[in-house]
Amino acid sequence: MALRVWASQAANTLRIGCKRPPLSFGFPTIPLSRGFAHVIEGLKYAESHEWVKPEGEVGTVGITHHAQDHLGEVVFVDLPEVGAAVSKGGSFGAVESVKATSDINAPVSGEIVEVNSKLSETPGLINGSPYEEGWIIKVRMHDLLEMDKLMNAEQYTRFCEEEDASH
């Protein structure tokens, strides 16, 4: 914790970093107890730290603020092809950061109908705006009932708090 405080003070002194909170689709944000990660009301969350925003039968998918914060600076995103099928819990791509490479898992099953091609040129959108500019794919969902098995904002906040406490 002391290192994080020192790093924050150093960044402020050097005037580097992003001071604006993540964008939130107009929904209220709920800060996690760690003080720097947010979840958004109205989205659904997977235990693997992906979110989905349902809009009819299409869901927009990305990784959470909590996940991007743990990854660090995202430097590359391996994007799937439009038309590819995804299965709930199955990997459809990867995010590479300065710390690690991590699979991106589908929170719902369906067919990819759109890919955020901006991430090929600017993968850091995931860090700066994980819930808006940094979305990864849009999926035509095959089974809308899969959404019921995902966590809401309050459940995901509790999940992250418990996960962080165990590390």
UniProtKB/TrEMBL annotation:
Q: Name one GO biological process term.
A: protein lipoylation
Where is this protein localized, as stated in its record?
Mitochondrion
The task this protein performs is described as: The H protein shuttles the methylamine group of glycine from the P protein to the T protein.
Principal localization reads mitochondrion
High-level lineage: Eukaryota, Viridiplantae, Streptophyta, Embryophyta, Tracheophyta
Give the signal peptide, or none: none
Which family is this sequence assigned to?
A: Belongs to the GcvH family.
On this chain, the residues bearing N6-lipoyllysine are K99
Binding partners and assembly = The glycine cleavage system is composed of four proteins: P, T, L and H.
- InterPro entries recorded: 2-oxoA_DH_lipoyl-BS (IPR003016), Biotin_lipoyl (IPR000089), GCV_H (IPR002930), GCV_H/Fam206 (IPR033753), GCV_H_sub (IPR017453), Single_hybrid_motif (IPR011053)
List, for all copies, the residue spans of the domain called Lipoyl-binding. 58-140
**Keywords assigned by UniProt?**
Lipoyl, Mitochondrion, Transit peptide
Q: Which cofactor does it need?
A: (R)-lipoate
Q: What is this protein called?
A: Glycine cleavage system H protein
Q: Which GO terms describe its cellular component?
A: glycine cleavage complex; mitochondrion
Q: How is the cofactor bound?
A: Binds 1 lipoyl cofactor covalently.
